[in-house]
Amino acid sequence: MARSFKETLNSGKFVVTAEVAPPKGTNLKKTVEHIDLLKERVDALNVTDNQSSVMRFPSLGTTVLIKECGGEPILQMTCRDRNRMALQSDLLFAYTRGIRNVLCLTGDHITVGDHKEARAVFDLDSVQLLHLVRTMESGKDFSGNDLDGGVEFCAGAVVTPEADPIEPQLIKFDKKVQAGAGFFQTQAVYDMDNFKRFMEYAHQVDRNIKILAGMVLLASAGAARYMNEQVPGVFVPQDLIDELRSAPKGTALRKGIEITGRLIRQIKEEAICDGVHIMAIGREEVVPDIMVAAGL
Amino acid sequence: MTTGVEFLPCIVAFCCVHSAYQAADAAGRMRIPYPENIIMVHIPCAGRVDTLHILRAFENGADGVVILACHEGACHHILGNIRAKERVERANALLREIGVDGRRVEMRTCAPNDGSRFARVCHELEEKIKELGPSPLRKHA
Amino acid sequence: MIIAERKPLEDIKQMIAQYKKILLVGCGTCVTVCWAGGEKEVGILASQLRLAFRRDGGELETLEATVERQCEKEMVEELKDKIQQVEAVLSLGCGAGVQTIADRFEETPVYPALNTKFVGMPEREGLWIENCGACGDCFLDRTGGICPIVRCAKGLLNGPCGGTNKGKCEVDPEKDCAWTLIYRRLEKQGRLDLMRKYYPPRNFQAVVRPGKIEAQRV
């Protein structure tokens, strides 16, 4: 990939990112397969950081792997497991391995994962982590000491356009932009009218902010209902659930791919935002099918 | 018990003076028999019974404990019977923690003139405790 | 006020299994108010332990005492005579109380019967909630008097996380999202500008552990 992710973001092209999840263990076979499958097709690949607070192979290690495979990685960093010292060390290391993109997140709480009794760190929050990245870029560490050899990152953040209530979320979005977030990957969005309203707000905050709409593949009507009931800040409209339910037996996944493709196509055709971030959650192999369905 | 001697349970009944205690008198006047091994403790209100009183009864050899209170809504101190009910639940929980069947403590209600109900309740309790057997908390159990 | 909770009976039994005679000591201050270690709870636990020992075929002798404040040296002094008569002490005080007795009577093993939980306040009768995390650097001026350090599960300083859900917290749907409460309060007061400000990370030097404060005499 010749172009850096930052250049792609600024090129005006419809940006597509996807996500790979590191394995629980050292067997990287499937992860490498996913990387190889997607690295040429998308503009960058996110790597989740102990996703859902489940202990896994590190995000940092996987981004290095993506780099070795010739892909463009986005290092997801949460504040759950590391204090400000460990976060900085990891960023220094990441930089030396050619990793140039970092997505700053607060992280799920420890109690939702598989090490419930562990100590949750949260020394920083996502806004502070963005500040930390920007401070390091100025040649100083977060305590104001000089760095011997600096860093430069394309730092991004996340936002939940369907958060309820939305106002506190918008304030935080604003703070993330102020803190220097160059791009946003959103929580899953399905209702385009709601999403357009959010985009109006986003553009009021910053005309040039790059927003990639989160696209989570719905593999069945049950999964869609689960998202509505169990995942905060996600709203799947009833007509999509009905559409999934009406799919003949065994074709719900096909239908889900078609729906995701259709949403992406709408976002692109109506230029609602700058691109999409596709989260196939365990079905990374169908991402190319989604892209075909979207006409990408 | 293997002795062949019939188990005669010791039951401590905390009787509210406004209801059960009078009902016991009524039973007596009406010559309705009730088990002799019920030890009645005269209390001014079921709300006077503390969780600790219940535990102490067991420490002193009771096989079962009952609080006999006024019917719900009829407490002369408004909430006494409600409080007693909470304490019975608490005592049950404490006993279960020790590994003792919580059914050994219960709360029943009774009207002051209902001698026959009083006697019936006492018989029922005796039967229940007989089924459960002697308290494992007796000193020489 | 310090909020504590009794340890499981099984744990307490194991701690004192080797003894025949112990002293249970309650505290008349915080743990009395939160129903964990006052005179009443001392009486109940003593009785329960005696019964539990008997249940297991043993026998336990107990003495009981409740001091006004177990965390004060002078106040635990009155336990002296009773402690001389027993093999061990079971404290129903908070961790500070346990240590005060243990420091004063070094020859006697002192065991905690409670788990000290948090600094709390009564929400209603019999329910206490944690509203202050004793962080040492009070933040409440910026959040409308609602502490995000302890009332937000993640202790976030710059607004809600993505787990906020219709005003509730993702970690426990029974609990309010502190940042939604803060937003509503500041909105009501016309002070939302406070929420728009960036707050840098906490200073964990605010309390150098173990904490120590020497007051100025007035």
Please provide a written account of the structure.
The complex is a heterotrimer of chains A (296), B (141) and C (218). In chain A, 41% of the residues lie in helices and 15% in strands. With 296 residues, chain A is of the alpha/beta class. An 8-stranded parallel beta barrel of chain A has the order 1-2-3-4-5-6-7-8, surrounded by 5 helices. In chain A, α10 (252-269) packs across α11. Chain B is an alpha/beta fold. Chain B has one domain (11-132): 3-Layer(aba) Sandwich (Rossmann fold). In chain B, 40% of the residues lie in helices and 16% in strands. Chain B has helices spanning 20-29, 51-59, 80-98, 115-132; strands at 11-16, 38-43, 64-69, 105-109. Chain B has a 4-stranded parallel sheet with strand order 2-1-3-4, with helices on both faces. In chain C, β4 (88-91), α6 (95-104) and β5 (110-112) form a beta-alpha-beta unit. Chain C has 2 domains: 2-118, Response regulator (Rossmann fold); 133-196, no CATH class. Chain C has helices at 9-16, 30-33, 39-55, 73-76, 80-84, 95-104, 148-151, 178-188, 193-196, and strands at 2-6, 21-27, 61-67, 88-91, 110-112, 114-124, 127-132. The model of chain C has no long low-confidence stretch (mean pLDDT 96). With 218 residues, chain C is an alpha/beta fold. Chain C is elongated and about 65 Å long. Chains A and C meet through α5 and α6 of A and α8 of C.
List the topology elements.
The complex is a heterotrimer of chains A (296), B (141) and C (218).
Chain A: H1 5-10, E1 15-20, H2 29-38, E2 44-47, H3 59-68, E3 73-78, H4 84-96, E4 101-105, H5 126-137, E5 154-159, H6 167-178, E6 183-188, H7 192-205, E7 210-216, H8 221-230, H9 238-246, H10 252-269, E8 275-279, H11 287-293
Parallel strand pairs in A: 1-2, 1-8, 2-3, 3-4, 4-5, 5-6, 6-7, 7-8
Chain B: E1 11-16, H1 20-29, E2 38-43, H2 51-59, E3 64-69, H3 80-98, E4 105-109, H4 115-132
Parallel strand pairs in B: 1-2, 1-3, 3-4
Helix pairs in contact in B: 1-4, 2-3
Chain C: E1 2-6, H1 9-16, E2 21-27, H2 30-33, H3 39-55, E3 61-67, H4 73-76, H5 80-84, E4 88-91, H6 95-104, E5 110-112, E6 114-124, E7 127-132, H7 148-151, H8 178-188, H9 193-196
Parallel strand pairs in C: 2-3, 2-4, 4-5
Antiparallel strand pairs in C: 1-6, 6-7
